[in-house]
């Protein structure tokens, strides 16, 4: 929604409200989404592991759609504080999304297809970003103005929620139209317990927090969140203030890097599965290789971008496209690695790393407010890019050193005993004692 926020503060020819928000207010609005987003990450991961992801994904999409529809009204009545409230509520609902998706992948994605399936799922976020950035610029400059951006987004979300409710399922065993052969193949390949079995498993907190491979994912997720969300939320402002791109062209040019990311993510995922399935490289090596492309590639490109003189629009767009495009490799790097470590607790691991990582997402637009005092100054924006470069480099270095592609021992802890289990054990002991007594009598 960064293009829409820019549009809300830009003069138009159709009489739509224009909000003269300062840069710090705009960044507060952009970051407010994450205030709600981080709160439900860990609870969502744990609940998904017990009850499946379908219901939580449905709730996230419905709430997000409804909040988008009321945002224009809220903005005109309550100014920027009401918009913040809407984005906080939107963040709360979408906090259910990624842990639920990871829980679904843990149930549905066989190891040999995991990179591709993970990319198909998570690249959808970039497809949505592309559509939003392109349409937001066009809609905002048209007669319906910036409110149309929120109306279209809200209606689309509600429509997709209806499709998901009809076609989606938490596990192969609960899908209405899956064939027996496909269900058997998936259930024997994924390496995770069914939802009914996961309900009896206690979360291995000690094993998780003492696992260096888990910490490697956590730090990589944090570095990705800061670097990527700095780009996502600030590219429209950078193009508008430094490069002088108008709002209509801004949406189209801002979307171009994410088109590259969307396309390249599939190239990376198919290449990764090809290399691993042909035993050319091991799974841990593949995860580290593509995570390095996703982190150190953009870091190098950003370094070049930070020294481009103002006015070189074509070169800047090319480097931004390269920066974001290479980052598409993270789908087959750290982002899918939770399932490699623990298919049974992938949703919980994602809840932890996504929650912690998005603390850095909150910092992204706020750090720009602290660093950039003159929005037209290329040298001040250079400092923003250098911060992202440092996080990309250091977090990937830790990932290379400590990441493992092996399923961890704590993936299958002892199931938590229920009252029913205890009664059964007592009955078995009594039955055994009675048998021994009968044998001794004879």
From TrEMBL:
Q: Which GO terms describe its cellular component?
A: membrane
Tell me the superkingdom of the source.
Answer: Eukaryota
Instruction: List membrane-spanning regions.
Output: 29-48, 55-74, 80-98, 119-138, 144-167, 208-232, 252-276, 288-308, 314-336, 348-372, 384-403
Q: Name one GO biological process term.
A: monoatomic anion transport
Domain (Major facilitator superfamily (MFS) profile) ranges: 1-407
Compartments, as annotated in UniProt: Membrane
PROSITE patterns noted in UniProt? MFS, SUGAR_TRANSPORT_2
**How does the record classify its membrane topology?**
Multi-pass membrane protein
For this UniProt entry, the molecular function terms from Gene Ontology, in alphabetical order, are: symporter activity
- Keywords noted in UniProt: Ion transport, Membrane, Sodium, Sodium transport, Symport, Transmembrane, Transmembrane helix, Transport
Job description of the protein: May be an inorganic phosphate cotransporter.
* Family indicated by similarity: Belongs to the major facilitator superfamily. Sodium/anion cotransporter family.
Q: What is this protein called?
A: Putative inorganic phosphate cotransporter
- Native species of this protein? Papilio machaon (Old World swallowtail butterfly)
């Amino acid at each position: 929604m960064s293009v829409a926020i820019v549009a809300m503060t830009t003069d138009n020819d159709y009489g739509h409200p224009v909000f003269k928000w300062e840069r710090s207010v705009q960044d507060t609005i952009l970051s407010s989404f994450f205030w709600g987003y981080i709160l439900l990450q860990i609870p969502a991961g744990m609940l998904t592991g017990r009850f499946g992801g379908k219901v939580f994904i449905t709730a996230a999409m419905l709430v997000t759609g409804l909040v988008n529809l009321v945002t224009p009204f809220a903005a005109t009545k309550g100014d920027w504080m009401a918009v913040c409230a809407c984005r906080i509520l939107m963040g709360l609902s979408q906090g259910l999304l990624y842990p639920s998706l990871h829980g679904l992948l843990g149930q549905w994605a066989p190891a040999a297809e995991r990179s591709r399936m993970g990319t198909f799922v998570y690249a959808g976020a970039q497809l949505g970003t592309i559509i939003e950035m392109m349409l937001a610029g066009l809609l905002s400059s048209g007669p319906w103005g910036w409110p149309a951006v929120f109306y279209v987004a809200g209606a689309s979300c509600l429509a997709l929620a209806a499709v998901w409710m009809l076609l989606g399922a938490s596990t192969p065993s609960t899908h209405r139209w899956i064939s027996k052969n496909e269900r058997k193949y998936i259930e024997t390949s994924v390496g995770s317990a069914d939802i009914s079995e996961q309900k009896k498993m206690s979360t291995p907190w000690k094993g998780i927090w003492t696992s260096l491979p888990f910490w490697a994912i956590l730090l990589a997720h944090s570095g990705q969140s800061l670097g990527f969300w700095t780009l996502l939320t600030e590219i429209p402002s950078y193009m508008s203030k430094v490069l002088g791109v108008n709002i209509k062209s801004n949406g189209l040019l801002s979307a171009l890097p994410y088109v590259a990311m969307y396309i390249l993510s599939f190239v990376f995922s198919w290449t990764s599965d090809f290399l691993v399935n042909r035993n050319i490289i091991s799974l841990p090596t593949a995860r580290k290789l593509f995570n390095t492309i996703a982190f150190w590639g953009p870091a190098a490109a950003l370094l070049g971008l930070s020294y481009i003189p103002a006015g070189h629009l074509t070169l800047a767009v090319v480097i931004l496209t390269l920066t974001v495009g290479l980052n598409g490799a993270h789908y087959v790097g750290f982002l899918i690695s939770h399932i490699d470590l623990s298919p049974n607790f992938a949703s919980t691991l994602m809840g932890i790393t996504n929650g912690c990582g998005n603390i850095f997402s909150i910092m992204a637009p706020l750090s720009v407010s602290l660093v950039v005092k003159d929005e037209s100054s290329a040298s001040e924006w250079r400092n923003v890019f250098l911060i992202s470069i440092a996080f990309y480099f250091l977090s990937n270095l830790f990932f290379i050193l400590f990441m493992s592609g092996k399923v961890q021992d704590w993936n299958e802890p002892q199931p938590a005993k229920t009252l029913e289990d205890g009664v059964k054990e007592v009955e078995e002991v009594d039955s055994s004692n009675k048998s021994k007594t009968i044998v001794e009598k004879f």
